[in-house]
Design a protein that fits this description.
single chain, alpha+beta, two-stranded antiparallel ribbon, 14 helices, 12 strands, 56% helix
């Protein structure tokens, strides 16, 4: 610590560089965790056990499936019920995060809507609105809501406890299909498994029987299925690699300079009996100390910056950053790795010189 204090500006500059890399990783991981949590709601629409989507689409909301697939799924012994849904994205202009669901009034999705005000009626120009969306837009039963330039009378307000549903609205299936120009088509089919069916085995069996479909049963799968979720995951990986490379080079430069300036001191320590491993440990520990200071600062900046990054990505309406112990642990691990990667070579190289020659030359 005394040696680091001799070159405060250099050590601080290195720590700040490491902090920026760690902060970016922590912020992205926090947004990714929030995305995973939110994506869980897309899996369990209508409190379903799984959602079925078209494979190889940029985003699950862009999926297109034939409604006839519902009957095929219902015939399976491991499926208790299935119902089609049309997802209308950005249909409510003031609130682009609101999804308007087109649902079969007799399906379990519509039947599970709990009316908190007004009545549960779909069809004939009527729409039901989630209580969160209603609160934000100050809507009440008897009023109107415009979806894709069409006005519908609000029959009632509902609450389900699922974010995507409560911040959205529900039309009957046929009306939604007409709005989206999808005759006999749906975005997804949500499935309830039989009570005696083993969840993992049933999902695997459905996937095997329908290799052209994507069956999503948990939040992690939902986050990976969308292009946005994959983008966040890939970005975190790239930023982490860059943080290791750039931070490692910064520490390498700092420690190389420190070793060069302390050749006489290292030679004296070697001359009085210090083993090479002990000298390596001394120099390496200084590099790790700089990295840990940078990592600690980076964790703080990452926690603070996660909200700003969330706003910058334009997902604050639907995603809340989740700072978890795992996220913080990964940030510290990156900081430690930077110290080891950047300090190992200068430590080993600088302590391998002959003490007698160094003393003689100085």
């Amino acid at each position: 610590m005394t040696n680091l204090a001799r070159r405060k500006a250099r050590a601080l500059a290195t720590a700040v560089g490491i902090a920026l890399g760690v902060a970016t990783v922590v912020a992205l991981l926090s947004v990714g965790s929030g995305l995973n949590k939110t994506a869980g709601g897309l899996v369990h629409l209508g409190d379903a056990d799984a959602g079925i989507f078209q494979s190889h689409v940029s985003d699950p909301t862009a999926s297109i499936l034939p409604v006839s697939l519902v009957d095929r799924l219902k015939k399976r012994p491991d499926v208790a019920d299935a119902t089609p849904l049309v997802l209308l994205v950005e249909g409510v202009k003031p609130h682009p995060e609101a999804i308007v669901f087109g649902a079969d009034p007799q399906g379990f999705f519509a039947q599970r809507l709990v009316a908190v005000d007004g009545t549960r009626q779909l069809g004939a120009g009527r729409i039901m609105v989630g209580d969160k969306l209603a609160a934000e837009m100050h809507l009440k039963p008897g009023g109107t809501l415009t979806v894709k330039r069409h006005r519908y009378t609000i029959a009632g307000l509902y609450h389900t406890g699922i974010f995507f549903e409560d911040i959205g609205a529900v039309l009957d299936l046929r009306t939604a299909q007409k709005l989206d120009n999808r005759v006999d088509e749906a975005t997804t089919i949500v499935v309830n498994l039989s009570r005696d069916a083993h969840h993992a085995q049933a999902v695997a069996s459905i996937r095997k029987a329908n290799p052209d479909l994507t069956v999503i049963s948990d939040a992690q799968e939902a986050a990976r299925a969308g292009a946005n979720g994959q983008l966040v995951h890939n970005t975190v990986t790239i930023i982490a690699a860059l943080a290791l490379i750039v931070g490692g080079l910064g520490v390498l430069n700092t420690m190389a300079m420190a070793v060069l300036e302390r050749r006489r001191e290292i030679a004296l320590l070697g001359a009085i009996g210090w083993r090479r491993l002990r000298l390596v440990t001394l120099v390496l520990t200084e590099g790790i100390a700089v990295s840990m200071v940078g990592a600690a600062l980076g964790l703080l900046l990452g926690v603070i910056g996660a909200r700003g990054l969330n706003d910058a990505l334009g997902v604050s309406a639907v995603v809340t950053p989740q700072v978890t112990p795992g996220t913080l642990g990964k940030g510290l691990l990156i900081g430690l790795a930077i110290g080891v990667i950047g300090g190992l070579y200068p430590a080993w190289r600088g302590t391998g010189l002959d003490s007698a020659e160094l003393l003689a030359s100085t």
